Amino acid sequence: MVEKIIGSINRFEAIIGIIGLGYVGLPLLLRFGEVGFNVLGFDVDSQKINCLLKGKSYIKHVPSSKIKTLLDGKMADFSHDFGRLSEADCLLICVPTPLTPHRQPDMRYVFNTAEQIGRTLRKSQLVVLESTTYPGATEEHLLPILEKYGFKVGKDFFLAYSPEREDPGNPHYHTGNIPKLVSGVTERCLAVSRALYEKITERVVTVSSPKVAEFAKLLENIYRSVNIALVNEMKVLAQRMGIDIWEVIDAASTKPFGFTPFYPGPGLGGHCIPIDPFYLVWKAREYDFTARFIELAGEVNVSMPRYVVDRLVKALNDRGKCLKGSSVLVLGIAYKKDVDDDRESPAYPIIDMLMEGGAKVSYHDPHIPELRPTRKYDFTMKSIRLDEKTISSFDAVIIVTDHSFYDFGFIVRHAKLVVDTRNATKGLSDPYGKIVKA
Question: Which is catalytic among the residues 51, 90, 94, 272?
């Protein structure tokens, strides 16, 4: 049975099913199609499915041409009918793993998907979880769900964990050149999953168990979270001491060893770093362990939107204005530059705090024309036009996301006050003292 499925993978005859067609699942599906596999994409969102069936992309950095090429070659199909899961030889789960309001893992999308797979599971299928989760989730939860339908792992079907490592909008790294961590519940599971991923990436790194791969994925994101929190804290201290933290980082970065630069900002965004560390915090309690560094980093990073608003309030006060009644333009909703991904963006709490303080808030983002409801916020706003007249009409402009689209020199010239959270105004002349770093 192992030889059969590996043989079909090696001959590119296996059908690859991707469940969840978001920022992780859609690029992964396109990569499998690009190397020659027939692909079948699943999503509960019928709007996404309808877009894909028309050859249209709903993600900025994913070109529609790639989808259309697969459709024209009859190498791709898309569906919200999960009864078709049995058509795929390899099923890769790329569904969201958010947090509950109490910062506990919300695994319902993964577990519901596993139940749907279990109902249609057939012999020789490979199931791989790519969604980020806590150590033990694959073996302790997914495995029992699948085996309760009468199949034995490693004998009748194969189960693996291979964490996603997507970085939306990164021009240098993509699915094809990012090393892929692969694990399996059994040796046979590992062999099958390794054979699959070797077809789409330059390097496959195998580890001894899903728990190791699950922990490794969390460590990657916790490393970033902790270091970003450190530099955010240093930013606040440097500001009080009258020191430019960006110049400090540039100076420290000249050391050729022992230092990796991280940069401060208005707060964490994206689906990974603000969320994933708390999966390990939650799991650690099961072992009577308090992950203090992770929790402290979370506290620091969550406080950054408040720091930005406080800096704005002080800057307005220095100019004889109060926040209440002031008009504020937020530049950038996406959590990082040049993408249309607004998940967990710090722009949302910043807007919320400004509105609570009585400010009149507008926004501009070239990649996000209209704000959509999020887990916490529901603002009815559309991106406004950005020109000289518009910019000069606001009491303050906050640079939340430093999109390449923006001409920051133009913005500074015409704005009354600019609160810069990204060092986007570095090197610009400021004879009238308009720029405030935050």
Answer: 272
